[in-house]
């Protein structure tokens, strides 16, 4: 199994957060809200509020390094063969460290995880709703690190898609295309098929979620024509209201249409899930698992680590 869409901050459990608080000397957070399962009524905005807690203990390079390793060890223990862990370095500079220092720590963790037998890639997230200069700073760092083959493998655009549509981020797509950085984008989560379509037309070969493109013929045919891979996240999609019908989730629809689809966790802690659980909830058959694995391998930004 391969997880191509998993966020560092939203995947840290209570014990891991407490260890990080101890390492950094940050105050021990109050877990009540973090532990409350997100509900579709609150939508994506409410879901995203839970990230504030893990971010409070992830403000030093050392903590980012250990958090990455904690997560890599856990995923390895769960039997995953590869994962691409994503995070937004611009949200980790409150301790006075630069984005480059934070990204270097993540890169060191990826190298260490590889040494310990778990190949992983790190995707750097630009964020919807923050200033352009900050996102361009993240994107420039990504360009530099990706080129040097440091374990940093690509870019993402994450955050509140409902409030901040793709049309505000033409510069993100243009920069990634121009520099040749592999990139994905959260789309079709808080907005509909049109958001996926615009991302595809901006050159995205991977779409974070993309679930709401299902049954939209125009978007699906353009996804097929462009060879786009969708990073579906079942539990998260139900919790954010991206998809409402738990029994009619479009994983099999995408497979049958020939769209390259993958199944991922998004946030193991916030969504209280694991990749094994996601596969079990959707009753993925061995034949379907073979297809999902092949799709994930083909779409991975760091193929050299998987092979
Ligand atoms: Zn996500």
How are the SSEs ordered, and which strands pair?
Layout lengths: L1 E6 L6 H11 L7 H4 L7 H7 L2 H5 L4 H17 L4 E6 L11 H17 L4 E8 L4 H16 L4 E7 L11 H10 L4 E4 L5 H9 L4 E4 L7 H10 L2 E4 L1 H6 L11 H7 L2 E4 L11 H7 L4 H14 L3 H4 L1
Helix pairs in contact: 1-5, 5-6, 6-7, 7-8, 9-10
The protein binds zinc ion.
Descriptive account of the structure:
The protein has 307 residues and is an alpha/beta fold. The protein has one domain (2-301): Metal-dependent hydrolases (TIM Barrel, Alpha-Beta Barrel), CATH 3.20.20. It is built from 15 helices and eight strands. The strands form two sheets. It has a four-stranded parallel β-sheet with strand order 1-2-3-4, sandwiched between helices. Helix 1 (14-24) runs antiparallel to helix 5 and helix 6 (99-115) runs parallel beside helix 7. The longest helix has 17 residues, at 61-77. 53% of the residues are buried. The model has no long low-confidence stretch (mean pLDDT 96). Residues 5, 7, 158, 186, 208, 266 line the site of zinc ion (ZN).
């Amino acid at each position: 199994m391969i997880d191509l869409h998993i966020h560092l901050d939203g995947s840290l459990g209570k014990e891991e957060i407490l260890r990080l608080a101890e390492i950094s000397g940050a105050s021990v957070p109050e877990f009540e809200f973090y532990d409350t399962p997100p509900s579709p009524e609150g939508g994506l905005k409410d879901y995203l509020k839970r990230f504030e807690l893990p971010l409070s203990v992830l403000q030093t390079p050392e903590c980012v390094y250990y958090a990455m390793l904690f997560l890599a060890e856990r995923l390895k223990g769960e039997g995953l063969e590869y994962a691409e862990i994503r995070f937004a370095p611009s949200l980790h500079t409150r301790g006075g460290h630069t984005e480059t220092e934070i990204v270097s720590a993540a890169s060191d963790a990826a190298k260490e995880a590889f040494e310990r037998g778990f190949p992983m890639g790190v995707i750097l997230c630009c964020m919807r709703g923050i200033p352009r200069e900050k996102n361009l700073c993240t994107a420039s760092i990504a360009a530099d690190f990706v080129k040097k083959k440091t374990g940093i493998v690509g870019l993402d655009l994450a955050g509140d898609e409902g409030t901040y549509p793709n049309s505000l981020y033409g510069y993100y797509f243009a920069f990634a295309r121009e520099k040749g950085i592999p990139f994905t984008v959260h789309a079709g989560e808080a907005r509909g098929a049109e958001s996926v379509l615009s991302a595809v037309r901006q050159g995205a070969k991977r779409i974070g979620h993309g679930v709401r493109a299902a049954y939209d013929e125009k978007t699906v045919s353009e996804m097929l024509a462009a060879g786009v891979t969708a990073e579906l996240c079942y539990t998260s999609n139900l919790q954010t209201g991206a998809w409402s019908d738990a029994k009619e989730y479009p994983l099999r629809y995408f497979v049958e249409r020939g769209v390259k689809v993958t199944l991922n966790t998004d946030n193991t802690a916030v969504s209280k899930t694991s990749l094994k659980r996601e596969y079990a909830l959707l009753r993925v058959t061995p034949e379907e698992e073979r297809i999902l694995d092949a799709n994930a391998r083909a779409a991975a930004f760091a193929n050299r680590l998987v092979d």
